[in-house]
Amino acid sequence: MQAFFQEELFRLEGGYTPLMQRGRKPTKEAPPFGQRLSSLRKKRGLTQYEFAGELGISRNLVVHYERACENPTMDFVVRAVKILDASADELLGLAEEAKKKPGPPPRLARVAERIAKLPKAKQAMILDMVEGAIGQAS
Is 9 a domain residue? Predict the structure, then answer.
């Protein structure tokens, strides 16, 4: 029934309309690489056509990388990260996302920031005291 409806619309409208579905709906979830590639591409504001044009490949190949490819070629990764202005680690999922707990930094980090703002002579004095205390504790 749907096919008949789309064919009728095609005939009446003289071409494709926004009501017609583009391609098949995906039957399975994209692999992690494809999800990251798609996310970075969208974050950069590129369509699949624009991204394919910059890479010098077809849009269908971009769709393959985003929907089905689990292990891309190194050549593709190198070209893609240049266009997406991202790191290869980020695209391949090797870069750990900052998994910090929300909230204030730990006490040691706050103290270190305060020490960094002191004059060099006072910083040296504090470092000597800390190293002496660490030496006694060891």
Answer: no
User: Would you say residue 45 lies in a domain?
Assistant: yes
Do 52 and 82 belong to one domain? yes
CATH of the domain at 57: 1.10.260.40
**Count of the separate structural domains present in the chain:** 2
Task: Indicate the angle between helix axes 48-55 and 74-84, nearest 10 degrees.
Answer: 120
In the chain (138 residues long), the average pLDDT of successive 10-residue segments reads: 56 57 71 93 93 94 92 93 92 71 74 90 91 86
Identity at 79, one-letter amino acid code: R
Two tokens, residue 72: 């891309």
Helix 48-55 to helix 59-67 angle (10° resolution) is 110
Question: Residue type at 5?
Answer: F
> The tokens 């190293």 sit on which residue?
131
Contact 69, 33 (CB under 8 A): yes
Q: Is residue 11 part of a domain?
A: no
Q: CA 73, CA 36: separation in Å to the nearest integer? A: 15
Q: How far apart are CA 83 and CA 8, in angstroms?
A: 42
